[in-house]
Prior knowledge:
The chain is of the alpha/beta class and 219 residues long. The protein has helices at 12-28, 56-61, 82-88, 99-111, 135-143, 156-160, 183-189, 194-213; strands spanning 32-34, 45-49, 68-69, 71-73, 92-94, 115-118, 148-154, 173-176. β4 (71-73), α3 and β5 form a beta-alpha-beta unit.
Amino acid sequence: MKTRIRPTGMRTVYRLAWHLVRGLSRIYFRLEDVGVANIPLQGPVIFAANHVSFLDPPLIGCLVPRTVSFLARHSLFEVPLFGPLIRYLHAVPVDRESGAAGLRAILNRLHEGAGIILFPEGTRSPDGNLLPAKPGVGMTVLKSTAPVVPVRICGSFEAFGRTHWFPRPCKVVVCFGTADGFEDERAEAATCDKPRLKALYQEVSDRLMARVGALHPEP
């Protein structure tokens, strides 16, 4: 359902981009939201979402009433004009060949109190169905103190999936679940041995994907 929200703590350019993407998406994709009230408005937060389209980050971001960071390939930051723009819009440069550096960048952003969108599947789904979760998001969750909000985006695959060359005006609904603190898992991670810690990363990622899969638009 459509929810009235007021953005807070945004720079001018980010706020303008937020309103622009939000307005166009409401018209072109008939964008709707469910559960926006579940979003923490202050402090660090991780949004763990399914991934089916290049549209997912901006469509999720324009519904979140606070500044959020997105992951972007580090090479994109070298593109004239575009690079400075996405940096100003709080994108986080990530080099897939240097996972440790990317993790540090994400954790630093969370330590600063930011919100960040992560995709447990690690890549876009080829058919719109949920993919198995990878352990990377679980590692990020356990190494941070941020609450995690599961997010399910429905319709963006039909609008702009892997086989589409241009976005189609299909209806998109984004569902936000309640935040999860993972207190028990974080407490165990602080004392367990490395094999158990590795297993915990996957368990947290799997639990997140299960929560994402359980979210559905209201009838």
